[in-house]
Amino acid sequence: MIRLRCATRADIPLLKYWDTLPHVIEAGGGEWEWDVEIPFEAPWLEQFVAEEDGRPVGFIQIIDPAEEQTHYWGECEPDLRAIDIWIGEVRDLGRGLGTEMMQLALSRCFADPRIKAVLVDPMASNIRAHRFYQRNGFQFAERRMFGSDDCHVMRVSREAWLAGKP
Ligand SMILES: CC(C)(COP(=O)(O)OP(=O)(O)OC[C@H]1O[C@@H](n2cnc3c(N)ncnc32)[C@H](O)[C@@H]1OP(=O)(O)O)[C@@H](O)C(=O)NCCC(=O)NCCS
Predict the structure, then answer these.
(1) Which end of the chain is more exposed for a tag (fewer CB within 10 A), N or C?
(2) What is the pLDDT of residues 44-76, one digit of tens each?
């Protein structure tokens, strides 16, 4: 069973190690300044390590894109959330863990009645991630450059998420 717990300083070495793995780098990860990111606290930020039976298997970040300090998402309507997600070890890919993590994260986001929709921004080339997000209720919204990264913005509205729940 997957549990999301807050990421702490003790996770930094593992997060740095995951950043060296090709599937993380290819997805556009591997560039996070963990020594700065993890101790940082802000009302618009949540960072979680996913554990399977106590073993860390992945990372998930939830932000409020309108409030995030670098304004990575540009001008954004209020009451949205944006998610970054990845699995650490290659052997843990494709085991259903990401689906469990994403469903926990979406439940967490939409538990706040103000939240209208959740965004993700996979690289345009990351076809497998597009499929993963689609299965989790996201739909293509627009193609967009974030810096030099060519990305697909995908979005799941509260209504779509509720309709897709078993
Ligand atoms: C995307 C990701 C979080 C999904 O988690 P997961 O536990 O592997 O996924 P699940 O087992 O729940 O679902 C399987 C689906 O995940 C996706 N997936 C599996 N391996 C993947 C990989 N190496 N890269 C991207 N997506 C992958 C595929 O859509 C797969 O379905 P498919 O076999 O029909 O292609 C995970 O695969 C991952 O960390 N991938 C690499 C990093 C990444 O692409 N993160 C998203 C950046 S926007």
Answers:
(1) C
(2) 999 999 999 999 999 999 999 999 999 999 999
Compute the distance from residue 124 Cα to the ligand 1 centre, in Å: 14
CA-nearest residue, atom 12 of ligand 1:
96
Q: Is the CB–ligand 1 distance for residue 96 below 6 Å?
A: yes
Phi, psi of 47 (to 5 degrees): -125, 125
Tokens standing for residue 162: 């509720």
State if residue 88 touches ligand 1 by the CB under 6 angstroms criterion: no
Please name which of 124, 37, 47 lies closest in space to residue 85, comparing C-alpha atoms. Answer: 47
Residue-range domain boundaries for the chain: 2-116
Provide φ and ψ at 54, rounded to 5°: 85, -5
CATH 3.40.630.30 fits 2-116, yes or no: yes
The Cα–Cα gap between 9 and 68 comes to 21
What's the whole-model pTM score? 0.96
For ligand 1, is residue 139 a contact (CB within 6 Å)? Answer: no
